[in-house]
Amino acid sequence: MTDNKVILEINDLKTHFHVEAGIVKAVDGVDLRLNSGIKLGLVGESGSGKSTIALSLMRMIRQNGTISGQILLDGVDLLKLSQEEMRRVRLSQLSMIPQGAMNSLNPVMRIGDQVTDGLIDHGQSMNKKEKENIVGELFKIVELPPKVMHMYPHELSGGMKQRVCVAIAISMRPKVLIADEPTSALDVVIQRQVMETITRLVNDMNLSMLLIGHDMGLMAQSVDVLAVMYAGHMMEMGGVKEMFADPLHPYTIALIESLPILGSRGVFKGIPGIPPSVINPPPGCPFHNRCNRMMPEICPVQAAPYREVKPGRWVSCHLYN
Amino acid sequence: MPPLVELRNVSKYFGGNPKKNKSVTTALDDMTFILEADFPHIITVAGESGSGKTTMLMLLLGFYEPSEGEVLFNGKNIWKMDREETKDFRRSVQAIFQDPFAVYNPFYKVDNLLSIPIKNFGITKNKDEARSIMENALRRVGLRPEETLGRYPHQLSGGQRQRIAVARALVLHPKLLLADEPVSMVDASLRATLLKQIRDLNQELQIPVLYITHDLTTAYHVSDYIMVLYRGSVMEAGDVEKVIRDPQHPYTRLLVNSIPWPDPSLLWGQTAEVVRGKTILENNGCKFANRCPHMTEICLQSPPPLYRVHEGQVAACYLYQGCNQIEKANLSEMFPNRPNTTQEHSMDVLQA
Fold first, then answer.
1. Please, how many CA atoms are within 13 Å of residue A59, restricted to the half-sphere of its CB?
2. Which of B255, B184, B256 is nearest to B213 (CA)?
3. Is the sign of the CA dihedral B19, B22, B24, B25 positive or negative?
4. Which of A171, A192, A251, B244 is disulfide-compatible with B258, CB 3.0–4.6 A?
5. Which long-range CB contacts under 8 A does A168-171 form with residues at least 24 apart?
6. CA atoms within 13 A on the CB side of B117
7. pLDDT value of position A248
8. How far is it, in rounded angstroms, from Cα B233 to Cα B213?
9. How far is Cα A43 from Cα A228, in angstroms, rounded to an integer?
10. B146 has a pLDDT exceeding 90
11. How far apart are CA B137 and CA B114, in angstroms?
12. Which residues make beta-bridge pairs with B213?
């Protein structure tokens, strides 16, 4: 099912915002490759730039932001498309499940109409009967009862609303699905049900998925490849099992050690310090002032290159020169 | 001596009286719970949204008045106290809330959060003394006063702000700390540090903590005991190690099986006992019956009592009919005051 075709390639992506205090380097030179049929998890703390990457891919950042670099979706550079061309790419080839389903549906529009809104905008015409069929089919995939299409958002629970958002996102069978914290507002039980639906349909439809979040537990459960971001930079990437078993970057090591696991009750390992500001950030590795293996002669001076240290394993750290 | 706080047959309804009106929400259903003053343990109150955990917190803080039953502090009903007693109650029961952004007024420096309680409760009138109380409280939660005082909330991270909220509780020398999802909005790398601080305070100051959460992974790590609520009733309670490792009630099993453990070898798997929430059938029996894979006739007839499934673990489920029952009012027996047996809480914060 999974071939090695690269479906999404990001090269040296920089998304900077110009604010009064200076330049916010929210994403500062990120490289990422997503193979066809793969579920890639992107983790990072708040402010690390993970959501900015998602919005940059969709080209939906605020007016004061600039995106540079290359975003190749199936060979086409999204940053070179006109606004109108980009509009046609969204939903049909690249779509997104937004964070917080509670707020992303229109409260005064029936669910069914919201699901087909995008399809109609992309030039599909349909009569009432066809519309019900299309929505019914999508609801079957996301495990919603058909009657939901005639309801309004306030009649649905959080989990159901999130399923509606999933149905909209997959309505045109995009090549790449971006899910930005799709379950962050849900209870554990519902979270598991929604997440299992998403992973199942991604596998069934052979989509590629970029799952963005901060919950390492959810990542361990759902993705094939894990990428770790910190302060606008990519720190490490690799297969999810290898990443948990043998993390290389000191940040990844500390992050994994800080997680509560079964069996070591009452042991707390936090990471001291706080992430650096991304407004006019200091030179060097962004993690150097919290790193327990910092090398004073190089880490505060020069950022480590991001490179492949073994097949499929990328890391940005001077320890692995 | 009367217990520090006691919920005595407390129910909380929203929308009227359930005997007259069927559509009333019962947020907490006949809960009896006793907490002694000399009880240096952390009890988790766990459940999904709508389970009644926040209602329980609001009742304990005196923000909600119970629909039935009494909330007692030092043996006195908190709704019938005089001015002095109320002040003592307000000072003794302190809370840390979920959102480290919402508790601050953005126009005031963070000092305000610490100096106002000192002033209002008359801890000291001397300015220098007040300052040193504030500084000590901040040091206690691992903050450097010179980097914190004089700043505005937006200049600090969520983790720092949440620690100041803990420091605020400390300046009042509380006898009970209520922590409502204190780490759910804090980044993963800071979560462990904050939980460790709450644990350390609990141990050093010997004060009980109620940790209210839906996150069973942190509950497992930080607490000694747990009670699991569902739609206002206790489903399972006892020693956290037993309840999380070997849950007995079908609802707790569902919750525990849904934990996304950060370990790719512990996948959500075939362990599933997930029954989709069908429409809630009103019945007089077990509230979980219509989601339960083991539902039988008896479950719909009367609410199950608490059965002692193991030493230190009770479950309100007819699957354990063979076991001894304990009275609902004696729930607190499940939280014995014993020397701490968990592993020593190592000061294992990585060195900077």
1. 22
2. B184
3. positive
4. A192
5. A168/A91, A168/A95, A168/A114, A168/A115, A168/A118, A169/A91, A169/A95, A169/A96, A169/A97, A170/A95, A170/A138, A170/A141, A170/A142, A170/A201, A170/A205, A170/A207, A171/A91, A171/A115, A171/A116, A171/A118, A171/A119, A171/A134, A171/A138
6. 26
7. 96
8. 16
9. 5
10. no
11. 9
12. B46
Helix-helix angle A128-141:A111-121, to 10 degrees: 100
Residue partners of B36: CB distance under 8 A and separation at least 6: B3, B4, B208, B337
Query: pLDDT digits over A202-215, tens only?
Result: 999 999 999 999 88
Q: Which residue of A has its CA nearest to B187?
A: A45
CB atoms within 10 A of CB B169: 21
- Please give the Cα distance from A29 to A234 (Å, whole number): 8
Contact B294, B249 (CB under 8 A): no
Q: How far is B217 from chain A (nearest CA, A)?
A: 6
CB contact under 8 A, B274 and A266: no
Q: Which pLDDT does position B281 carry in this prediction?
A: 58
Both structure tokens of A67: 């995106």
pLDDT tens digit string along A163-202?
999 999 999 999 999 999 898 778 888 889 899 999 999 9
Tell if the CB–CB gap between A187 and B48 is shorter than 8 Å. yes
Query: If you ran DSSP here, which 8-state letter would residue A92 be given?
Result: T
> What is the pLDDT averaged over residues A113-118?
94
Q: Do A215 and B192 touch (CB under 8 A)?
A: no
- Alpha-carbon torsion (A145, A146, A151, A152), positive or negative: positive
Q: Which residues of B touch A289 (CB under 8 A)?
A: 352
Q: How far is A215 from chain B (nearest CA, A)?
A: 8
Q: How far is B113 from chain A (nearest CA, A)?
A: 22
Q: Are B251 and A186 in contact (CB under 8 A)?
A: no
- The angle at the Cα of B54, spanning B50 to B56, to the nearest 5 degrees, equals 110
For chain A, the 3-state helix, strand and coil shares in percent, each to the nearest 5, are: 35, 25, 40
Tell me: pLDDT of B349 over 60. Answer: no
**∠ Cα B24 B35 B137 (to 5°):** 105
A264: chain B residues, CB-CB within 8 Å = 343
Phi-psi region of B168 (alpha: psi -120 to 50; beta: other; left: phi over 0): alpha
Q: Where are the alpha helices (DSSP H) in chain A?
A: 50-58, 83-89, 101-104, 111-121, 128-141, 158-169, 188-204, 216-222, 240-245, 250-257
Distance CA B176, CA B181 (A): 16
